[in-house]
Amino acid sequence: QVQLVESGGGLVQAGGSLRLSCAASGRTFGAYTMGWFRQAPRKEREFVTSITRGGGTTQYADSVKGRFTISRDNAKNTVYLQMNSLKPEDTAVYYCAAASVWNSARASEYNYWGQGTQVTVSS
């Protein structure tokens, strides 16, 4: 079992940057692919990015490619999401998730989820 806690959300102006962190419990963090998803008000949860166990493979949604960067530090049991050039449409609750599959952009394949952290981008 993995417990995930996101942090780092907040209010930022368009064009600004924010870094989210996801702290994972347990000694098996390195066995999971980690992903970030987001859900805007009245919208479905959508895939943002993922990173494989060793950090060698990443995926990004087209909407964030070139602006967001996912990374992980297995020694610290933490995954990060660096968000640059933020846009108002990035406003959402951001969720950290863990999957036992090799890699996935599908929410249904993620086994564990954090509580989410709010990111609000003002224009």
Task: Summarize the structure in words.
This protein has strands at 4-7, 10-13, 18-24, 33-39, 46-51, 58-60, 68-73, 78-83, 92-99, 112-113, 117-122. With 123 residues, the chain is mostly beta strands. It is globular, with a radius of gyration of 13 Å. The mean pLDDT is 95.
Mean pLDDT: 95
Q: Give the radius of gyration.
A: 13 Å
Helix content: under 10%
The tally of strands reads: 11
Unreliable spans are none
Q: Sheet bearing the most strands, described?
A: 7 strands, mixed
Q: Please identify the structural class as seen in this structure.
A: mainly beta
The run of helices and strands is EEEEEEEEEEE
Cα separation of the termini? 40 Å
Task: Note the total helix count.
Answer: 0
Global morphology: globular
Strand content range: over 45%
Brief characterization of the structure:
This protein has strands spanning 4-7, 10-13, 18-24, 33-39, 46-51, 58-60, 68-73, 78-83, 92-99, 112-113, 117-122. With 123 residues, the chain is mainly β. The strands form 2 sheets. Strands 2, 4, 5, 6, 9, 10 and 11 form a 7-stranded mixed sheet that branches. A 4-stranded antiparallel sheet has the order 1-3-8-7, with no helix packed on it.
